[in-house]
Structure formats: structure tokens, C-alpha cells
Design brief:
The structure is a single chain. Helix content is about 75%, strand content about 0%. By secondary structure, the chain is an all-alpha fold. The strands form 2 sheets. The protein has a two-stranded antiparallel ribbon. Strands 3-4 form a two-stranded antiparallel ribbon. A hairpin with a 2-residue loop joins strand 1 and strand 2. The chain is globular, with a radius of gyration of 30 Å.
């Protein structure tokens, strides 16, 4: 009896320890928490921290940073004209720049091999065969690589304390600096993992990651220079940045925009990496479409909405066309969405089609644009363009509530969705023709570059009208023509009216007709492909599958192949039975 009682009490204590209050009251949170890739994190940390390169790399980086800080302090102390506070600020700036340099240019080499090394050793398939989902695999790799870098960032904290000896900085600047380093570490690590999901070779993944980082830094330097964050001034880098944004009255909006763009970039890279390692039959791309639907309008309205909520009013920049930057950015984002989504493979897997068919009501309507595929990608691009145009109009209303909508913005609102539909129809036509997604995207990008760059050559060379008329459909020409929307001037030998109609009107008609024609051709190719697949399935399967049955089930090539195999097996069995009889 005593043994049974002890056993029961032991089972009760074990169940209490195993379950706990959080497990009983928050089971969803516990399930989510346990599925964050902790096994991968533990395995990666055990492997990496036992290697000699972990100690050597961190030791060399810390020694180099300490030597650089000593040189800064020594040069400042030897100069009697430099006050101690300025020495502390210079030391803090050098520390921050060195930390950022190490995070950006040294540690991405470790995250860039996270998935490519698994592909090389053929262990990625084993991970996907386990209970871990692709999202959990990517999250575990991210935590391991980021923690590897954050150990260095945290171990360098005593070096930062040297700047407090001289003064000139406060705790708030230190918190801002480490928050920025944390975000930079996670973002760069996620970039390396996303790039490694595309590459089989670790060397190629590492070089590609460093190339993307170099291009991103060049673009960010131009962006920050245009935003008025360059130049010399008193205080640390963070103090100068905050002072310049505060003097312009846009500090809160700028920080909100920076946080929104950074968070969206991280989510996009995470979704790309997770979709790349999914099995071929699993649906992918839905998350990216939802992110694009939130990001494009949100990026346009973030600054104005922040000012409206916090300051109670929006900042109205001077100038009649203060939304030029927003319009240009929205156009580039929409073209990128067309290149990515409208050129997807038109053939969907059986599982994707079953998931789409199971939707009902409003989810079925929304699933038309969210389901992977070239046709749904075309629909999504048009819907996204309409949302972007609505965001541009809302931004103007927030900034200028008492002014009427300007002529150039009205023309953009009517023309931009038609242009996006035209470009998306080209991508849909290429996909239905038989181009692979990579081939269709390269072809579409080549056409866009040609139509955007070639008119600039004609405009600069001041050619006659007969040569220039072929470039009327190019966005740079149309954008230039909006400067003179109310009149009909000439720039050299170039005029912006033909037969009494403005170029923007002719372009809208051409875009609408071109999109309709290409969409019609693509649908005919789609119907022809379905007919060929159903005919092949019926011919291969024989009596077991008729053409009407195949057409009713909307079978793809995969279904046709399965049906053919069944038909061949039945025919072989019938032949054996006939020989026996």
C-alpha cells in the first residue's frame, strides 16, 4: 500500500512539474514557445562554442577595438585644446563605428552558411522530416547566429565604460546605441540566412551576402544624406541625428518610419528564407503578399499618421509637388511586386489547390489574390496598386486638408494602376507561355530597364518628334509631361501633346488595351494547357479516367501522371489475367 501511495504521489509531483501553471492556463503560448527552434539553437551553440575560432575571433576583435580606442584617447589627451567631454564623445563614436563594422563585415560570414551548409551535408531534409516546421528551422538558425554575434557585442561593453571617465555622453545615448546594434545584428544575420537559403555553396552564399550588404550601405548613405543627417557638429553621432530631425520637427515621424522599414525588412527576409526551404508541394508566397499589402500603403502613411497621432497635426512641406518622392517610391515598389508575383508558376500543386478550394465566404474572395500562382499574382498586383494610390491620396489629404487634389496627383491615380496592370499582364503572359519563374522575371526586368532608360537618351539628345513618339508609353516621359499638364509646351523638339490629347491620356488608353489583350492571350493559353492536360490524362488512363472526369477535377500535370500510372497498372493486371485464362 505504501509503495502504491508513493508511486501515485510521485506521478502527481511529476505531472505538476511537467505541466505548471503557465502550461495549464496558457497552453497556446507554451506551444508557441516550445516551437521556436530551441533544439537547433542548443545544437548550434554546442558546436560553435567548442571551436577554437570562437575564442580567437572574439579575442582578436576585442583587442583591435581596444587598441583603436586607446589611440583616440591618447590623441585627445595630448591636445590641451580638446576638452574632456569631447574626448568622451570621440571615444563613444569610435566604439560605435567599430562595433557596427564588426557586426556588418565579419559576423555575416557565419550566418551566410547556416542553411547552405545543411544543404551541402544533406541534413536539411532530415530537419524537415522531423517535427520542426520550416519557420522553426529558420528561427533556430537565426537565434544561434545572432547569439554568436551578440556575445561579442555584450563583451565589448567594458570598453564603452572608458568613455564615461571623460564624460560628454549620457545613459540614453548608450541605450540608443545598443538598441541600434541589436537591430543591426538581427537584420544582418537574417539577411545572411535568407541568402544561404538560395545557395548550395557556402562560398557563393558568403560572397552574395557581402555584395548585398555593400549595395545596401551605399543606398542607405544616399538616403541619410538626402534626409539631412550628414555633416559635423557637437555631440555624438546619435545626438547629431536626433538634433537634426528635431530641428526639422520630424524626429518622431523619422524614428517611426525607420522602425517600420526595418521591421518589414526583417519579416520579408524571414518569410523568404522559410519559403525557400519548404517542400515543393507546400504553398508559399502568401505571407509575402500579406506583407506587401501592409508594407506599401504603410510606408507611404507612417510618417503622416505618426505626426497626426502624436503632434495632433501633420507637417505640410512647401511646394506644389511635395509627394514626388512618395509617388516614385510607390511606383518602384509596385513594379517589384509585379516582377515577383505575376511571374510565378501557373501550375499549382495538389495540396495548394485543395487549400484554396476549402476556403469559403470572404476567405475565398481574399484567397484569389493570396493563393500562389501567376493569375492570382496579377490580381494581387492590381489590388496593391489601387491600395497604393489610395494611400497617396490619403497622404495628401492629411498634409493639405483644405486644398484640392492637384492635377498631377489625379493623373497618377488614374494611370498608375493601369500601368501596373499592363506590366503584370506581361508577366502573366510570359508565365503562361511556358517561361520558368526565373526566365520570366529576367525578361520582364529587361523590358522595364529598356523602357525606362532608352527615353532618357532621346530626351537628352533633343531628337525630333518622329523619333520620340515611340517613347510615349515610358514612365519617365509621362512623369516629365506632368510638369506641364495644363499647357502644351515643348522641350527642344519634344512636345507632350499629340492630336490635341495629352500623353498621359494616350498612355492610359494604351495601357488598358495592352493589359486586356495580354490577359486575354494568357487566359487562352491557360485554357489550352488545361485541355491538353485533360486530353493526355484521358488518353493515358483509358477507361479508368475519361476526358470529362479530368476536366471536372481540373487535373494538373501531376494528377495526369498519377492517373496514367494507375491505368498502366490496371492494363498489366488485365493482361496477366487474360494469359492465365
Amino acid at each position: 500500500m505504501s509503495s502504491d501511495l508513493a508511486t501515485a504521489m510521485g506521478d502527481r509531483v511529476y505531472a505538476r512539474r511537467r505541466g505548471g501553471i503557465i502550461s495549464r492556463h496558457f497552453p497556446t503560448f507554451v506551444t508557441w514557445w516550445r516551437g521556436l527552434g530551441w533544439p537547433i539553437l542548443a545544437k548550434q551553440l554546442r558546436v560553435e562554442f567548442r571551436r577554437d575560432r570562437f575564442v580567437w575571433l572574439h579575442g582578436i576583435c576585442l583587442a583591435g577595438q581596444a587598441l583603436s580606442l586607446l589611440l583616440v584617447i591618447g590623441s585627445g589627451v595630448d591636445d590641451p585644446t580638446v576638452p574632456p567631454g569631447q574626448i568622451g564623445q570621440q571615444t563613444f563614436d569610435r566604439f560605435l563605428l567599430l562595433q557596427a563594422f564588426v557586426v556588418v563585415f565579419i559576423f555575416p560570414a557565419f550566418s551566410a552558411t547556416a542553411l547552405s551548409e545543411e544543404k551541402r551535408t544533406r541534413s536539411l531534409d532530415l530537419l524537415l522530416l522531423s517535427t520542426l516546421r520550416p519557420v522553426e528551422v529558420v528561427w533556430g538558425k537565426l537565434l544561434a547566429a545572432a547569439f554568436y554575434c551578440l556575445v561579442y557585442v555584450g563583451s565589448a561593453l567594458p570598453l564603452l565604460a572608458v568613455s564615461f571617465v571623460f564624460g560628454g555622453i549620457d545613459v540614453r545615448e548608450v541605450l540608443f546605441a545598443y538598441a541600434g546594434l541589436l537591430v543591426l545584428t538581427i537584420l544582418v544575420t537574417m539577411l545572411g540566412i535568407a541568402v544561404s537559403s538560395f545557395c548550395e555553396s557556402s562560398v557563393r552564399a558568403t560572397l552574395s551576402t557581402y555584395g548585398i550588404i555593400a549595395i545596401s550601405l551605399a543606398l542607405l548613405s544616399f538616403a541619410f544624406e538626402d534626409a539631412g543627417t550628414g555633416g559635423e557638429g557637437p555631440g555624438t553621432i546619435i545626438a547629431q541625428l536626433e538634433a537634426k530631425w528635431s530641428s526639422a520637427g520630424t524626429a518622431g515621424a523619422r524614428w517611426a518610419e525607420l522602425a517600420f522599414h526595418t521591421g518589414s525588412a526583417f519579416v520579408a527576409l524571414f518569410l523568404i528564407a522559410a519559403s525557400r526551404i519548404r517542400p515543393p508541394g507546400d504553398p508559399s508566397g502568401t505571407g509575402l503578399r500579406l506583407l506587401a499589402m501592409v508594407y506599401v500603403p504603410g510606408a507611404i502613411l507612417t510618417g503622416a499618421v505618426w505626426d497626426l497621432l502624436v503632434a495632433g497635426s501633420t507637417v505640410a512641406p512647401s511646394g506644389a509637388r511635395d509627394l514626388e518622392g512618395a509617388v516614385e517610391w510607390a511606383t518602384c515598389a509596385l513594379l517589384l511586386a509585379c516582377v515577383i508575383f505575376s511571374t510565378e508558376s501557373p501550375i499549382l500543386s495538389r495540396r495548394t489547390r485543395k487549400i484554396a478550394a476549402a476556403r469559403r465566404g470572404i476567405r475565398r474572395v481574399a484567397g484569389i489574390a493570396a493563393t500562389p500562382g501567376a493569375l492570382s499574382g496579377f490580381v494581387f498586383s492590381v489590388v496593391l496598386a489601387s491600395a497604393a494610390v489610395g494611400s497617396l491620396i490619403a497622404l495628401f489629404v492629411l498634409r493639405h486638408p483644405s486644398e484640392p487634389l492637384p492635377a498631377y496627383l489625379r493623373e497618377v491615380a488614374w494611370t498608375l494602376p493601369l500601368y501596373v496592370a499592363f506590366v503584370g499582364a506581361i508577366g502573366l503572359f510570359l508565365a503562361e507561355t511556358g517561361f520558368t519563374p526565373r526566365q520570366a522575371r529576367l525578361t520582364l526586368v529587361s523590358l522595364l530597364v529598356l523602357t525606362w532608360v532608352l527615353p532618357a537618351i532621346f530626351l537628352v539628345s533633343d531628337v525630333a518628334d518622329r523619333f520620340y513618339h515611340g517613347m510615349f508609353l515610358s514612365p519617365p516621359v509621362l512623369w516629365s509631361s506632368l510638369d506641364h499638364i495644363e499647357e502644351a509646351p515643348r522641350i527642344g523638339n519634344v512636345t507632350f501633346r499629340v492630336g490635341g490629347l495629352h500623353l498621359i491620356v494616350i498612355a492610359r488608353i494604351a495601357y488598358a488595351l495592352g493589359a486586356a489583350a495580354l490577359f486575354s492571350f494568357a487566359m487562352r493559353l491557360r485554357a489550352k494547357r488545361k485541355h491538353e492536360v485533360t486530353a493526355t490524362a484521358a488518353e493515358t488512363a483509358g477507361e479508368s479516367l475519361t476526358a470529362e472526369d479530368a476536366e471536372r477535377e481540373e487535373l494538373t500535370a501531376e494528377d495526369a501522371e498519377d492517373a496514367g500510372k494507375k491505368g498502366e497498372e490496371f492494363t498489366a493486371e488485365d493482361a496477366e489475367d487474360a494469359e492465365k485464362n
